[in-house]
Amino acid sequence: MPKLDARALAALSVLVTRPAHQAEGFCRLIENGGGTARRFPVIAIAPVTDQPGLDQQLAALDQYDIAIFISANAVHYSVPHWPPGLPGRVKVAAVGNKTAARLHAHGLPVDVLAQHGYNSEALLEAPLLHAVQGKRIAIIRGVGGRELLAETLGQRGARVNHIEVYRRLLPEQTLSSIDNYQNCDIITVTSQQGLRNLITLCDDKEWLFNTALASNSQRTAALARELGFTRDIVVSSEPGDEAMAAAIANWWQSKNKAR
């Protein structure tokens, strides 16, 4: 991914809604491109602490044939509970490059990574996840994630167990606490839940629905239209920070040319 020009985002103000611990890399890209990043996390991430047997479930990961990590958060909140010697015989799958990078950082090789796209549908195309008859598969995720992986793998004959290690929470802070938020030119959202939370946390719905939006997913973009967003919706080619920043830069430059 080419590096952004230092003035590619000049005079652009971006409302960044990613969870606080995941936003800084993207905010730096915006700022290095000459823009302003306004931080407003719409999802708070917290570890699961009230699920009986969670430690035992994670300690038994080496008894599975395949362990699928849904996100970088799934890696982060499960690491302290991994059994010694993981992966052993366990094949490790990751949904997306950030998840794979986090696994590598903790010494785990990644056996399965989607080649085209960064979602459950793309991961399910991997040959290893087709030959799963009779295999035990653990899906490590947040509470209340999508069911597509488990349902499809179950139909293929696998025995699937969810291990939920974190929760996505609605922050208490509302958008009105951000000074001059209405001067933002575009809002970034990276999940459907984040989009719904953004709407909940914004009192000025007229401003919100008339502001441009950037997403890393066609599914989230389609939901935004359905929920009432009427302005430009920019969708990045990949979910990573660089792709999102590049998509916003292309949009911003086209807007300036049209003026």
Keywords:
elongated; six-stranded mixed sheet; five-stranded parallel sheet
Topology, element by element:
Layout: E1 13-16, H1 20-32, E2 36-39, E3 44-47, H2 54-59, E4 66-69, H3 72-78, E5 91-94, H4 97-105, E6 112-113, H5 120-123, E7 136-142, H6 148-155, E8 159-169, E9 186-189, H7 192-201, H8 205-209, E10 212-215, H9 218-227, E11 233-235, H10 241-258
Parallel strand pairs: 1-2, 1-9, 4-5, 4-7, 5-6, 7-8, 9-10, 10-11
Antiparallel strand pairs: 3-8
Question: How would you sum up this structure, described in words?
Answer:
The structure is a single chain. The mean pLDDT is 92. The protein is α/β, with parallel strands linked by helices and 259 residues long. The chain is built from 10 helices and 11 strands. The longest helix has 18 residues, at 241-258. Helix content is 35%, strand content 20%. The strands form 2 sheets. The protein has a 6-stranded mixed β-sheet with strand order 3-8-7-4-5-6. The protein has helices at residues 20-32, 54-59, 72-78, 97-105, 120-123, 148-155, 192-201, 205-209, 218-227, 241-258, and strands spanning 13-16, 36-39, 44-47, 66-69, 91-94, 112-113, 136-142, 159-169, 186-189, 212-215, 233-235. The two termini are 28 Å apart.
Number of E strands = 11
Oligomer: single chain
- Mean pLDDT comes to 92
Compute the number of helices. 10
Instruction: Characterize the largest beta sheet: strand count, sense, and whether it forms a barrel.
Output: 6 strands, mixed
Structural class of the helices, strands and pairings?
alpha/beta
Topology pattern, helix = H, strand = E: EHEEHEHEHEHEHEEHHEHEH
Given as residue ranges, the uncertain stretches (5+ residues, pLDDT < 50) are none
Calculate the terminal CA-CA distance, rounded to whole Å. 28 Å
Overall body shape: elongated
- Tell me what portion of residues adopts beta-strand conformation: 15-25%
Radius of gyration: 20 Å
Order of neighbouring strands in the sheet with most strands:
3-8-7-4-5-6
Approximately how much helix is present in the residues?
25-40%
